[in-house]
């Protein structure tokens, strides 16, 4: 374990992060105190930006000084469907855009409990359809962490189901794939997870699902169609309660002869590539940049 990771663990403990995820109902109002809907210019690392309203979403486009590709990076942030984006989301996306010299956009979608999963997923879908009016679908890469990882997977499943053009590839980071979180392996991982806890995650998912079952494919891509999806580069962590379900998702994609590459953060927590300070996070983020650059170089 690096010194940086030790510091992150200490800060999370002092903030009571695990405790906030151990509440039912989850205090989403408190979680929203870390929201950054209108980011400070310094977060963009010299890139310009423009925010547009679309349906109930805010879509912020980040344009690096030197664009050398016609690829568009579309990012869905995490936050258990109830909060976000946070400063960490913005910093990660700005870094990725700068290093790949590609235009990127953050989809700040509507949140639960004010909005349920049908509205949230449709906002993401419509943002993608709007983007395809300017970009060829094969030039779009979808990224998302946690709940955002779930949203890009369910988006790809919907596009496949409706026989719409799918994106070049998907990069989900610690995605939620089964909102019911009933996997028998989860409790033993809960002890090691320094961020999430079963009770709070299920509470947030219930707020988002509305009248739907927590195992409905609209909120749980594990139960959706996993054949003919775009190539997937999935980042998971050994100390994350969402990992046991991600392992089932990986097997299902493989059984359907899908292309899925798994990057495992050993001893790492939830969404480790976008956490601050940690050298392990820098390695994870660089891996994401390398994946995107390989797509750019193939074009």
Automatic annotation (TrEMBL):
Magnesium is among the record's keywords: no
Domain named Alpha/beta hydrolase fold-3: residues: 73-272
Organism of this sequence: Aquimarina algiphila
GO MF, one example: hydrolase activity
PANTHER family given in the database record: AB HYDROLASE SUPERFAMILY PROTEIN C4A8.06C (PTHR48081), ALPHA_BETA HYDROLASE FOLD-3 DOMAIN-CONTAINING PROTEIN-RELATED (PTHR48081:SF8)
The protein's name: Alpha/beta hydrolase
Record's keyword terms, sorted: Hydrolase
């Amino acid at each position: 374990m690096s010194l940086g990771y030790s510091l992150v663990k200490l800060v999370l403990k002092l903030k009571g992060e695990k405790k906030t995820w151990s509440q039912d109902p989850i205090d989403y109002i408190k979680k929203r105190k870390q929201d950054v809907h209108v980011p400070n210019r310094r977060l963009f690392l010299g890139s310009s930006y423009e925010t547009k309203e679309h349906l109930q979403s805010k879509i912020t486009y980040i344009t690096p000084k030197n664009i050398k590709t016609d690829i568009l990076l579309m990012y869905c942030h995490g936050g258990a469907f109830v909060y976000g984006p946070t400063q960490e989301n913005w910093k990660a996306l700005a870094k990725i855009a700068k290093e790949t010299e590609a235009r990127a956009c953050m989809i700040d979608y509507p949140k639960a409990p004010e909005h349920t999963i049908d509205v949230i997923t449709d906002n993401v879908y419509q943002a993608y359809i709007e983007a395809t009016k300017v970009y060829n679908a094969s030039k779009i890469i979808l990224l998302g962490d946690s709940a955002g990882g779930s949203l890009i997977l369910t988006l790809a499943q919907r596009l496949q189901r409706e026989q719409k053009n799918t994106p070049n590839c998907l990069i989900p980071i610690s995605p939620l794939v089964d909102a019911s979180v009933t996997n028998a392996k989860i409790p033993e991982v809960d002890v090691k997870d320094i961020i999430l806890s079963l009770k709070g995650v299920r509470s947030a998912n219930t707020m988002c699902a509305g009248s739907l079952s927590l195992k409905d494919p609209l909120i749980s891509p594990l139960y959706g169609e996993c054949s003919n999806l775009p190539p997937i580069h999935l980042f998971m962590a050994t100390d994350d309660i969402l990992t046991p379900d991600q392992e089932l998702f990986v097997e299902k994609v493989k059984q359907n002869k899908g292309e899925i590459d798994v990057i495992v953060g050993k001893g790492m927590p939830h969404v480790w590539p976008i956490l601050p300070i940690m050298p392990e996070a820098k390695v994870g983020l660089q891996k994401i940049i390398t994946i995107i650059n390989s797509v750019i170089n193939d074009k």
